[in-house]
């Protein structure tokens, strides 16, 4: 497992920082100055080309039929009104146990002059892709429940164990529909594939739709509430800004896949994050004498991102869909402000990629919890 300790061969710490007084309420001084290009424009990751905008439910075995359909499929790809019902034929249907779902209005008017609603469903790998438009007068849990069942029946896949969604305003409808189907609804902004797909659909589908309303604002904007006090069971003992090369981050992800530690990862290849393995990824390391229970509690929170509030000299932890905590604070002065700003700049330079690591000791080579995080803007719809 990759080390998160302060290795002098990879993490250079000027002597002026070594004697620095503690600046956090975890009593650990921030040690690491990040080095990064002075001009690092923020570029959000884009989804790699996925399975294609295909409206077919299954793959036809007859070559003749496939050839005849090829031209029609190409036309469908260019038609922004086409709805998707696609399953990657190489995917095991039983592996699609977690879906990501959005049910919301789009900046599109129907023939009645009313805003169209759309259901968008996918899985983390985009092996499942489904979209369907609805008029605004049928938006309820019954419609959603029937649509979810329809996806299962049309594609021949079992209903999922969990469905993640990121809009708090739709919680009642989504929760009721899921509960009636025996599915666990999970409010979470860790719907990264879905969020990036919506961003792509805005550019390639919605803006090209004949009913598109230019300049229309999202009906259901994402919540960004004032951060609350951190619950006692989530406190650590010490913390520090750290960084790891992307290659070491990938090693930590492998530890997650082998189920040796708590946490969650992201599919970097799918997201199209094109950065070198030697690129340093910023993170936050937290140590605790009760590291395993702390990691277990964090594992149930759907951790989304960590950001620095320089003005308030604090770190903000975002979890779920509308919960933000003051995760840590530090004494504000020019040195700590520069450190905090450098950490945020390093995060932007890596396309928003960062991580949270929980350890028994900050000098340990092992983690008991590791979350790979991505700072994303809200979707345009």
TrEMBL record:
Residues 218-373 form the RNA-binding protein Tab2/Atab2 C-terminal domain. InterPro entries: Tab2-like (IPR009472), Tab2-like_C (IPR046761), Tab2-like_N (IPR046760). Residues 99-201 form the RNA-binding protein Tab2-like N-terminal domain. GO terms for molecular function: RNA binding. Residues 1-27 have a biased composition (Polar residues). Residues 63-81 have a biased composition (Acidic residues). Residues 1-81 are annotated as: Disordered. This is Protein TAB2 homolog, chloroplastic. It comes from Cannabis sativa. The gene is LOC115709866.
